[in-house]
Specification:
Structural class: alpha+beta
CATH architecture of the largest domain: Distorted Sandwich
Helix content: 25-40%
CATH superfamily of the largest domain: Glucose Permease (Domain IIA)
Radius of gyration: 42 Å
Distance between the termini: 116 Å
Number of strands: 14
Strand content: 25-35%
CATH class of the largest domain: Mainly Beta
Length: 295
């Protein structure tokens, strides 16, 4: 059989152009053209898809990293809040005369921060995150139960707790704490049985709990000083005063102004010396400061 020949002509001003081709050549050419078209389309589609999904994965990773860092920061803040609650719990238990929580009671709260860089995959990170959230939930429940117990104890005998010294006697900062130190007057090392608050002359000094004034006089060491018997084994001393506004036998309530700060007696400068005695023994007064949540 003879091949069927197809031809077409193009004419111009100067020349006649003729093109001849067979049906088989047309089929071959068309097959090659469509093959190239399909291959190009496949390659371009694959390249576009890969770049698109890579971009989507990168975007997702950035969002995941941002959310993870935000969660870690929030967990860290909650852990710091819980530590603060634990300190307050310890102080309030001292005030309410309840034994502090033991380490076994707090053992669920293992502590320690999550470091996402040390975790090998998303699964381990989420597991650690879940565990940390469980620990925080346990600690919060434990603190709530503890506060309920303290509150119940205090409400059961409000009169007694109004007598326990529980606030700072002046507004000022502690210049010298409780414990052994070198005496600022003679340089000898001895027990400093109270706190020295650095305050200006004539600052209000207030009673830190309900009680009865047992001393309101001058002493060569303490200068003008006041001693209050709060009952239940508690006494407080306020020394180096400039003025005394109460007298022996007078009843006072927490927050009453009882005198003015000064530097009378054996004092190196203006300050208030403050002591807390429990059963005739001095204790660190800072254990009994609940300003802000005991009124």
């Amino acid at each position: 059989m003879k091949k069927k020949i197809f031809s077409f002509q193009l004419t111009s001003d100067s020349k006649l152009h003729q093109f001849h081709f067979s049906l088989s050549n047309l089929l071959i050419f068309s097959s090659i053209f469509f093959a190239i078209l399909l291959i190009s389309n496949y390659y371009l589609s694959k390249k576009f898809s890969e770049e698109y999904y890579v971009d989507q994965l990168n975007t997702t990773d950035l969002k995941y990293k941002s959310i993870s860092e935000e969660l870690l920061l929030r967990i860290s803040e909650l852990e710091n809040d819980i530590k603060s609650f634990e300190e307050r719990d310890k102080e309030l238990r001292t005030y309410a005369e309840i034994p502090p929580l033991t380490e076994n009671q707090k053992s669920r709260n293992t502590g320690g921060s999550i470091n996402s860089e040390n975790l090998t995959d998303d699964s381990s990170f989420l597991n650690e995150l879940t565990k940390k959230v469980d620990d925080l939930s346990f600690s919060i429940k434990m603190q709530k139960d503890s506060y309920d117990k303290i509150f119940s104890k205090i409400k059961s005998n409000e009169k007694m707790y109004s007598h326990i010294p529980s606030i700072t006697p002046v507004t000022g900062y502690v210049g010298s704490g409780y414990g052994y130190r070198n005496d600022p007057i003679d340089g000898k090392r001895r027990l400093h049985s109270g706190l020295d608050f650095a305050v200006n002359l004539n600052t209000d000094v207030i009673a830190t709990g309900d009680g009865v004034v047992t001393r309101a006089q001058y002493d060569s060491g303490w200068g003008r000083y006041i001693k209050i018997d709060h009952g239940y084994g508690y006494e407080t001393v306020y020394a180096h005063l400039y003025k005394i506004h109460v007298k022996k036998g007078q009843k006072v309530q927490r927050g009453d102004v009882i005198g003015k700060s000064g530097n009378s007696g054996r004092a190196a400068g203006f300050h208030l010396h403050y002591e807390v005695h429990k059963n005739k023994k001095s204790e660190d007064p800072s254990k009994y400061f609940f300003t802000g949540y005991i009124k």
